[in-house]
């Protein structure tokens, strides 16, 4: 067996500790599959004293991650600090500059600075691996970039944030409102104290930007991703979705159209029969559609120490075996340059839910506005009757353009018989 | 870009033609992802004249596949003839002997002669790739052997035969009997004229034997797989399964237990809530459980020209990029040698359906026999009452040993109040 692969791990939080535990627990099995032992030679973390349940006395400690990147005995640098700036970014850049392969779980860093970092890695011919950055333990990056490499990918979509999926699942199962379920999720540790990164869709958008780059063979472009979170989803809309045969999921969807590449993260109504509609709780799923393979669905745990460590060590085994793939699946000269399609140009079907004053003429006003914007109705239902009082009215449309729907929505919202900000959820025939 | 990868394709049936079409349709995309062009330099097929919709005038034709394997201009040999013996086997052995990497979709060959072929490939240090041999377009082999490589796999299971899954799905949806649905499937081309290979579970067992070898890092061992097909599944049992909250699927299941490795293919009752219960029609699914990653589910099209070609070309792209993996995931010296566990030693829960004469004492006789074999009942239900006539009686058990259940079954079948061969289906808490 060849000489051991000596790694340096920066960041010993949940994930970093999980990686050390996995390498200790499955040392022989990992060695057999990697063709050599993988040993932790150096680490960098805030506290040296915290007990992490794994022996660290033999390893070289660094307070400065950048110094860790230059550790002469290190073959591969593993970045598990997190965050798009600061020490994580400095460490990755320093490691590549020092000619050391990098394994990272950092989706924020890759989404925002991935294009430049990939150029640096390619220019120096150094592997950069990041299976753990998307969908945790699901081999989504390997599956898409290698497993489906023979296909022209038309679309990649997924449930990419376990916190949002957990909240939406509990809201549906228990008929409860967002704020209440979020507070409970925070108490249970399923949501951060500051949850905005998850519930506003930013984390899912980071992952989608990476998936889109791999699916379509282009540098990552986070700025082009349209992002909406789940704060505005109500128990009423989840219940109405059920009546209409849909489930509400926060999806990231990237598709290749004649006009270019569209990438968006927002709540969607998906048919209850779609495989992705059944992916509940903290589970993630990635759906890819290729011209020869058809639709492939990958499902599993999207977060947590174990699944993330599984992905990080899978990357290390690839490196130990000398299995390399260009960051975006192809050399920079062969990357795709299709333009990004703005959200205004998106075409799709919509669910619109209004709270209106139950009096004659309201529906005529609303449907008149939709007609003016050449939006054709698929269905309309008013829940209950309460003359002079507020009642919910649901409208679903055939495919129309987002810009037209936005115009209609602002005019409808301005009607004095419309009592609340209208709820809009896009319908995805996924 | 490096020099093209010149491949020789043996077998130009549905799959072979699909591979040529994919390489022609996605030539530029494949070249970008492979880092070089992949060109078809030589072919071998029965008829030279058949129009396959792809130009073949420029390629070198061979009538003898073994001669094709020695074609001096060939970098990689692609075996798409099929069958565990004859020309397919001779071609693969000749190619490896000639030092040429092999890509094959041949599950029968790998299941039956894979151990010896893998040794030959390893001894000569030549890559042998076979993503297309299991679950068609689903990147199951790459996902398991590379994507989950950091995990100790406890279990791998799957819906591995689209024909059986299609037949069982139609039987359930339309409440029809096996023979009738099979005949229809044959008319539609979903089942072969001689369907035994599929419906008797042999094809699924070939694929399971390969998955088990990859999951547990051991040479493939088809002889150790217990195989039952779906001929005995009735519309009545499918309906009763539904009442009990189950669906009947033909599953291949390989698990690692204290006693060793158990591998079996047979109809199973799976909880309707399990992801795999919703995989219907010709779709396949593979479920893997790892100690760190937890459960991962991969779903997609398990057969057909497009999905199979997608998998074959993914292997070619790996080879073009120089990405290699030992056949069973580890070098022969590091392979696992746990014993195979015979089916008699299997422990699980059972569904038993009898047609009995509706008269006093019958249930007492049956339950007495189960007690004698120390099998404890979970539930018992008799459908309807018809004194003196035949009525179905369903019993479900707690976990017990297969051998005990077999003894009980033969004694129960011998009771004169039991009018038909009892139906037995294993319950899997997958």
From TrEMBL, chains A, B:
Top EC group: oxidoreductase
Keywords: Amino-acid biosynthesis, Methionine biosynthesis, NADP, Oxidoreductase, Threonine biosynthesis
Domain (ACT) ranges: 351-426
Pathway membership: Amino-acid biosynthesis; L-methionine biosynthesis via de novo pathway; L-homoserine from L-aspartate: step 3/3; Amino-acid biosynthesis; L-threonine biosynthesis; L-threonine from L-aspartate: step 3/5
Alphabetical list of Pfam families matching this protein: ACT (PF01842), Homoserine_dh (PF00742), NAD_binding_3 (PF03447)
Annotated EC: 1.1.1.3
InterPro entries, A to Z: ACT-like_dom_sf, ACT_dom, Asp/hSer_DH_NAD-bd, HDH, HDH_cat, HDH_CS, NAD(P)-bd_dom_sf
Similarity field: Belongs to the homoserine dehydrogenase family.
Protein name, as recorded: Homoserine dehydrogenase
